[in-house]
């Protein structure tokens, strides 16, 4: 009905070929012969047909699990059920077809023609069920035959058929995007957003949301009249349809501040919904449209309206809380003032909260910390530091160190908490407490040296590499003020070979600082032996390069070495709420709140492989937001395709980049005189390769001259002179090379590393 003769001929030709291919090799199930024979008998019994079809649908759904009969062999016997006028019998038949299509789509192609006939049935319920079953067939060759039935369904007079056809477009697009694009079905689905029925609008929005996750081009442009209809449909839809409508409004860009205010005011009632997904989608939409407001008062007003609903989400079950907290971290990183009016006590941990919820709540507490409430937060964290859950106790101690970095007014209280943990000597928390002391020293140098003795008293309990490196750094940094610095470092020196690279690097730096501060015989001997062990037994290239660096530095002017090694360090600063998230990823995820990507803190292309859509008729230029493993993907921002600004920028960059000249390889093979030789220059040539200091200490030939110049104790630690000479530095290769780039100066006569 309503189809052209050419379309019918093409449809039946494709279907007939697929049906013949599906029926040529039937599968025989000898194991369940008796059960299949019983089902076949029941299919021809009018009183038992429906029960048999439901049982077959269950077997078809469990086909991949094994141990169930292969009901696809009974498909010819099921066909006669489609000729019945009983609506309930047809519904059971289509239920079986839908279940079978999910596991064996090729078998259902046998009934494709008959299902297409029911798309024109007078009963709207059967039309919708037939259309839903038709688009459930996961055979790409059949996608072309689905276009016309779906197109007819989109213009059906019954709203139930129209909303079913809208979702069918998304299923066909997932099967074959180019067929949907060539059939212009997306434009017709977009037109359903202006439908009079709110359920049709909701299903059209859901279908478009699914399509624009994968389409490499913009599939949705909403104007204010359409946005008004979508907002009106919110009050008459189910909670999950409301989520689809709110996500669709992200694609609407207001042309004026008045339109933005209209959207915000209409969305505010959704913040009081009982479904957390509706609340998070409403907050995502409000945050996006708040950026179009110019008035600071209006921004603060709408931010205050979002604060209380976000706090209310903390009363939901633990899994929902965790999802909301993960999204809230992204919101606070991009919009720090959203919870400015919220009470931080809302995010205090409860006794029955699971560990994963407590960890996220601690991060939110730190993000909400201000000079006014930081002492209140620290009092709560002090209790967490003594929690029986070691992971939460460590997390709380890390949070204490962050508070010490961010708020100078509470450093004394943070030190008190850290010292209390060190005195308790709880192994897991003690490791983090030592690291926290190092953090305080780096942020506030020369202020809390009195607590070093307390830290050193717990030296035997320090076992983790991070804590060992922290305490070694403290000893090296304050080696001129610690009387037993040499004895403490000697403890770590004895186990140097067995330590992690992090500890070895810290010990190299600490012993170098000790020598430059004290210049005692013991420090020189320890440094000699340490460099010798590094040369002989350490395989880590970073550690060996660090040893080489200190050998060259200490073999020169000690005043220069002190300026380098003992130079004042810049104060440490705390990072973002979500570490490692760049501005681009933050911008993408802020528009994908309540999606899986916002929970994982990853772009969709980092864990989703998109279908190849180059066959589509739209022009598309990759924006670089997707992985290179797929030819093309869907742009993450706004959930739709690449936006025009990035396309133009990429096109301009590509136009400016000159193409490399073509190389005539055939000419090179035929004759060596294809291109004239370059003229000989009379100027001295600069070498193209600069000697690089090797990381392998034992691969350089002996250099006696170097030992004569730098006959220091450190040099004697390498009797084979395996280090390259300093004269092999970057000075070679220039017009007037210096014979000795690092010649000793008269001021170096007081250096014990020189004769």
Write the layout of secondary structure elements.
Blueprint: H1 5-23, H2 33-43, H3 49-61, H4 75-78, H5 87-103, H6 105-108, H7 112-118, H8 124-134, H9 143-154, H10 159-175, H11 177-182, H12 185-191, H13 198-212, H14 224-233, H15 239-248, H16 257-267, H17 276-290, H18 296-312, H19 318-334, H20 355-367, H21 374-384, H22 390-406, H23 411-424, H24 427-443, H25 452-456, H26 465-477, H27 485-494, H28 501-518, H29 521-537, H30 541-554, H31 558-565, H32 583-590, H33 596-600, H34 644-656, H35 665-670, H36 704-709, H37 713-716
Helix pairs in contact: 1-9, 2-3, 3-5, 5-8, 7-8, 8-9, 8-10, 9-10, 10-13, 13-15, 14-16, 15-17, 16-17, 17-18, 19-20, 19-32, 20-22, 21-22, 22-23, 22-24, 23-24, 24-26, 26-28, 27-28, 28-29, 28-30, 28-31
Radius of gyration: 36 Å
Helix count equals 37
**Mean pLDDT reading:** 77
Structural class: mainly alpha
Question: How many strands, what sense, and barrel or not for the largest sheet?
Answer: none
Characterize the overall form: elongated
Low-confidence stretches: 6-26, 612-755
Number of strand elements: 0
Distance between the termini: 104 Å
Helix content: 55-70%
Strand content: under 5%
Main features:
disordered C terminus; mainly alpha; 37 helices
Describe this structure in words.
- By secondary structure, this protein is mostly helical.
- It has 37 helices and no strands.
- The chain has helices at 5-23, 33-43, 49-61, 75-78, 87-103, 105-108, 112-118, 124-134, 143-154, 159-175, 177-182, 185-191, 198-212, 224-233, 239-248, 257-267, 276-290, 296-312, 318-334, 355-367, 374-384, 390-406, 411-424, 427-443, 452-456, 465-477, 485-494, 501-518, 521-537, 541-554, 558-565, 583-590, 596-600, 644-656, 665-670, 704-709, 713-716.
- Helix 23 (411-424) runs antiparallel to helix 24 (427-443) and helix 24 (427-443) packs parallel to helix 26.
- The protein starts with a helix and ends in a 39-residue tail after the last helix.
